[in-house]
Design goal:
The protein is an alpha+beta fold and about 725 residues long. InterPro entries: FA58C, Galactose-bd-like_sf, GH.
Length: about 725
Amino acid sequence: MERAISYRLFIRLIICCLSECLALSICLAQDQSVTISVAIGNPLNHFIPSQTFGAGIDGHEYGDTKKIFTEKNIAAMKSVGFGPLSYRLRTELGIETWHWNNAGQWSDPVHQRGYWVSRAESSKPIEQSYGYRLPRRGNTIDQANNDGYSRLDDGDQHTFWKSNPYLDQHFTGEDNARHPQWVVVDFTKSTPINALRIDWVRPYATEYTVEYCTTTKPNDIEDEVPTEWHTFPWGTFDNEKGTSQLKQLSPTPISTRFVRIMLKKSSGTIPKKVSDVRDHLGYAIQEIKLGTINAGGKFQDRVRHAKGNVKQTPMYVSSTDPWHSIHDRNPNTEQPGFDRVYNSGLTNSQPMLLPVGVLYDTPENAAAAIRYLKSHSYPVTQIEMGEEPDGQYVTPEDYGALYIQVADAIHAIDPELKLGGPCFQTTINEYKVWPIGNEKRTWMTRFLSYLKERNHEKDYSFFSFEWYPFDQGCISTAPQLAAHPDLLRGVIERLQRDGLSPSIPWMMTEYGYSAFSCRAEVDIEGALFNADAVALFLSLGGDRVYLYGYEPGNLMDELSCNSWGNNMIFLADDDLKIRYRTATYFGAKMINENWVKPGDQPHEVYEATSSLLNKIGQPLISAYALRRPDQLWSILIINKDPINSYPINLEFHDKTTRKMTIAKGDIELFQYSRDQYQWKSNGEHGRPSKSDLPVHKTIPLDQVALPPYSLSVILVHLPD
């Protein structure tokens, strides 16, 4: 008997070690009961389900909009029980201008080029819309399909990068010293540099400095931007005339990975045969060469010049001119049109959270979109201003200047519209923005300060961010699920320290397990994570959440570790017809229909804790308590232990009377685990091998057990 027990114990310990998920003490405690404690007193938060739980729609590959927006797909999407809808703007991530209406006006109509404003009326419904790539692009990479490239090192003497003219004092009303423009060259490894050649076009910089970075860390620039900059000994240039000359930066080469060119004063000169004021504002560079010059004057260029983002040296720029032409439409992608979305029924007759282009668009185009929506009586009350400026290395002051101009244009149409953002791409770590001078404050602190200095703080009415905390989708999921509450709680606390007011709405406008496709998103872990993110955010004071992955999709392996997945609640075939519902579908329905009482009545959120912690103090079981309008207590319980099942005790502690009530008797139980859902991995052909409805039954509380990796909702009535 002792040998048998020891053998089973040995096997359990081996499993725990292999999964890297549980402390030894937990592995030994399969049958220990878990106490869920609910603190009755002042609620942590209030919310109305029909206004709180939303989902988002996005841009897609060309031709996919019609396939997605079918009656059957829409009926399936509506069956999840979401309320408000968010519209995600792919063009802001792809360095494109959004032609939300394909009819409109060019600033140079003769040549069908320049700056675009979509028409505020249409003779027929707008079913699709498109993004137009910016030919004056400076960034090598983008956050969408990443199939473009920088014009700063493409080797083409007919192309050039130009900064955004809307950041010039002509539009900002500020001295241009407040918005210096810049180019950062990333050699990806330490490289000797002491010479530079810039091929200028108009307008050129009359004053600029060239800096190198002392950072030697091999980290990806997306994880940590370089912060320590020093000007080359001979790297300051004044009274420049725009000539393309080789310039020596130091007597001997300096090894550095990053070089930054700070553009401080513009010539303001006009290119030939151009009359638009925007064409002579900012800075324009045709090509950049950086390298070494030897004693004999011979120059060796270290920049790789190519028309492709894989072969060329990576470039990052402060901004990009939204100038483009009729020939620049991206043929590979599209956005669903306004009329198609509003007429689909997916908005549930509620105002849609609407984006407008800020980084790569014009204020006039944003204002025209508002005119169109109002003329059609489409409900809209909140506008999300741009998308992911942090992930595109835009300084908060530049974003703020563009934000104010778009805000003024929109409020000239409707002063009551609520504006917000910035739809942060990342909030896990303290985001480090490119430092200008001695500026060391965080991105959010600088942005809020800028709005206040410009007397525009009232134009900032809500905060939005995306929540995809786990980039490592190829490793064990259990430690990540256990770490999640501390991650989100830390982000909220840090943003409050940055000065973000809790008195304005906070919105999680996208959420999912990872920003990269991986198996966890389509397996049971995806359902556990989404439920945890939603419930925790509400308990921390959040106001609204929008699931990303509302539309049917396909599997991808973005991490190249044979971990096929996607943030989606429906797995579709090649024609985007729904074939399977993933675990996140059933998890979302449990939140929308079981944890809450669906409808328009307020719910109260109360603190709930679990007695089960892992070795480093993280809860392996998370609990979230609601007082519903039907007077039932609803407890969402998430077991993040992939191995063990636990019986539970449920206690209610009244903070006012200090009375404790132990729940007993029959309760209503909804439960979802691997007993109902199993994923069969098979590369791009993976699918659920089992996808049943959650269990629903009424049983005595002392018979409830929490299966491994499970969601449970317990409804209990407490006597007054």
